[in-house]
Hints:
Blueprint: H1 2-70, H2 73-84
Amino acid sequence: MKKKKIKHKTTRRILTLDLCCAIFCSFILLTFTSYWVDIVNLYNEKKDLETNLTTLKEEEKNLKNDVKKLNDPDYVARYARERFFYSKNQEYIIRIP
Length: 97
C-alpha cells in the first residue's frame, strides 16, 4: 500500500511538472510567434518606405530641374506661350485642333 501511495505521488508530481513545462513552452512559442509576425510586418513596411523614398527622391530631382528651368526667362516665356496661349504685342494666336 505504501509503495502504491509513493508511486501515485511521483506520477502526480511528474504530471504537474509536465503540465507546467507544456504551459511554459506554449507561452514561449506564442511570444516568439508574435514577435516574428511583428518583425515580418516591420520588414514589409521598411521595403514599402524604401520604394516610396526612391520615388520621392526622383520627384524631388524632377522638381529641382523644373525650378532651374523656371528661373530662365526665355523658358518661362515659351512655356506661357505654349501652355496658356500668351501672345506678344500685335501677335495673333490661332489654335489648330
